[in-house]
Amino acid sequence: MSLFTLRWGIISTGWIAEQVVSDLLVDPTTRGTNDIVHKVTAVGSRSVEKAQKFINEFVNGDKTVKAYGTYDEVYADKNVDAIYIGTPHTYHYTNALDALKAKKHVLCEKPVTCNAAELRSLIATAKENEVFFMEALWTRFQPLAKEVKELIDSGTLGLPVIVHADFSVDFGIDKLPLTHRMLDPKLGGGAILDLGPYPLIWTILALYEHPANKRTKPSNVTSTMYKTPITGVDCNTSYIITFSPNSSTGSTLAAQAVLSCSMNVASHNPGVTIRFEKGTIMIDAPVPCPLRYTVQYFQEGKPGKIAREDTRTFEYVGSGWHFQADEVARCVRDGKLESELWSHDKSILEMEVFDEVRYQGGYKFPDGIEKVLLPVRCG
């Protein structure tokens, strides 16, 4: 197979764009990838100077890379195949919509939108323009996640029963400016949208994607949140997701996920525990990019009695962001409009869960933040 090059335009020059671009430039052969290569061809920021500074620092000063002072110029660049969007949450919808209408493939940072209605609008636009669109939930593409998924689907451990997962970061919120992305409701601040996708990704992988579930949506989502008095965004949020057997879909899975995220305390270890009928998988923190997991196998007929324990550790060059970029490149090369590993229905499920969690917690965005509104709910 000939080498396929995907040419990237980068939207925003913040920390997360720095991480993604640094990984894009890692030699793909170091991770066993020999069919694709990534090329950054344009960077857009609020000024040409900021874009050029980013190129100098993170794209090795490559003089072939265009520096633009507007995002529209990146969308219009004929040497750009795909757009990576790394702006704050509340800008994702507008940025992605503009890129899709320009017929560019899009990898949009998580959370992909502010609500499920915005996401459905973007998916419709992507299909209308026949371009690839995916949320950048990088965890799902990492080697550890793929291996854990294979182990779950093998049935060796029996059916999953309960998932415990947490992702928390102590941001020192008492010392943050009110305009910080974690505190500002105009930027979709709070724990649930910024940190919540990571406990949820392991729930989707272990439960929603499980063969016994038949892609059946949860039967119930229950949540509670503590909102910081500083700005009213959620500081600590816990949510329980229940999957129940469903005769109409053929699902036979009965399982729950107990998830949490906080922005005023550090994560604990293990970050994820998946408990099965015949054993347990414990995944080390940090849950967005774990490098080690342990499997406990129970003695036959003796639930909870450990027969043996295996630990797997992973190493690779880079920080793990490049695996999702490889997926985008292969999908674009093959003419696919969505990824099978992180398909549109999974992002929709994610945003529906977050919509429900915010509704139950009474966390509403300021007027005008949501560009596509959810149906009005009574009660």
Automatic annotation (TrEMBL):
It catalyses: D-xylose + NADP(+) = D-xylono-1,5-lactone + NADPH + H(+). Residues 146-281 form the GFO/IDH/MocA-like oxidoreductase domain. It comes from the Eukaryota. Its EC number is 1.1.1.179. It holds the Pfam family GFO_IDH_MocA_C3. It is an enzyme of class 1 (oxidoreductase). Residues 6-134 form the Gfo/Idh/MocA-like oxidoreductase N-terminal domain. Keywords: Oxidoreductase, Signal. InterPro entries: Gfo/Idh/MocA-like_OxRdtase_N (IPR000683), Gfo/Idh/MocA_domain (IPR050984), GFO_IDH_MocA-like_dom (IPR055170), NAD(P)-bd_dom_sf (IPR036291). Residues 1-17 form the signal peptide. Transmembrane segments: none annotated. GO terms for molecular function: D-xylose 1-dehydrogenase (NADP+) activity; nucleotide binding. The keyword Oxidoreductase applies. Belongs to the Gfo/Idh/MocA family. This is D-xylose 1-dehydrogenase (NADP(+), D-xylono-1,5-lactone-forming). It comes from Suillus subaureus. The lineage of its organism: Eukaryota, Fungi, Dikarya, Basidiomycota, Agaricomycotina.
